[in-house]
Design brief:
- The protein is globular and about 65 Å long.
- Helix 1 (15-31) runs antiparallel to helix 7, helix 4 packs antiparallel against helix 5 (119-133) and helix 6 (140-146) packs across helix 7 (148-181).
- The strands form two sheets. Strands 1-4 form a two-stranded antiparallel ribbon. A two-stranded antiparallel sheet has the order 2-3.
- The chain has a domain at 16-138.
- The protein has helices at 15-31, 39-48, 96-102, 107-114, 119-133, 140-146, 148-181, and strands spanning 68-71, 76-77, 80-81, 91-94.
- The protein is mostly helical.
- Strand 2 and strand 3 (80-81) form a beta hairpin.
């Protein structure tokens, strides 16, 4: 770690700046489709990935023990719902390190860089997995057409929350100034 890394901590915290991603993600998650928990389907899905659901799962990217589930296709793109959800075909067993490193990047590019010599078979398995378990993606504009009133109301609520966070940032700045002068 370099000493310069402390710079991020030595500045005022912004409620709105830190929470905008969280707010957009929460609203996207709320409208995202989801699959029911069905152990038979999950075992079959893991078999497509070449894994045995009866034992601990491995990270699909690096083969280390899985610790979390990667949303392969992020729920939010350009501050809006991406069209993907909490469905079996969008979730892969993953270690925390790979999940963090991959972030919202393309899974195939990530895998090729992570495991260049071992990626071809993994890519083939993942493509079969997505073909079988990833449902139709709903484009955000398509969703707005299907339920315009609900989406408009959700956006109004989201904007009110953001406005309140901005208002809270102004109040927090006033408190910091008073503390400084005390």
């Amino acid at each position: 770690m370099k000493i310069e890394s402390i710079k991020a901590h030595l500045q005022p915290y912004s409620i709105m700046k830190k929470s905008q991603t969280t707010i957009n993600h929460a609203f996207a998650s709320a409208i995202a489709p989801h699959d029911a928990y069905d152990i038979k389907t999950l075992k079959a899905a893991m078999a497509v990935l070449g894994q045995d659901a009866e034992i601990d799962l491995l990270c699909v990217y690096c083969d280390e023990p899985a610790e979390t589930w990667d949303h392969v296709f992020g729920l939010v793109r350009n501050l809006k719902f991406s069209g993907y959800g909490h469905v079996v075909g969008n979730l892969l067993p993953c270690c925390k390190k790979c999940n963090s490193e991959k972030g919202n990047r393309d899974w195939e590019d990530f895998l090729k860089k992570k495991m260049p010599s071992n990626s071809a078979k993994k890519i083939e398995n993942l493509k079969r997995y997505f073909e079988k378990y990833l449902p139709k993606k709903f484009d955000y504009e398509e969703i707005k057409t299907l339920c315009p009133d609900e989406i408009n109301q959700l956006n109004v609520i989201k904007d009110r929350i953001k406005a309140l966070f901005k208002e809270a940032d102004v109040l927090a700045e006033a408190v910091r100034e008073k503390i400084k002068k005390a």
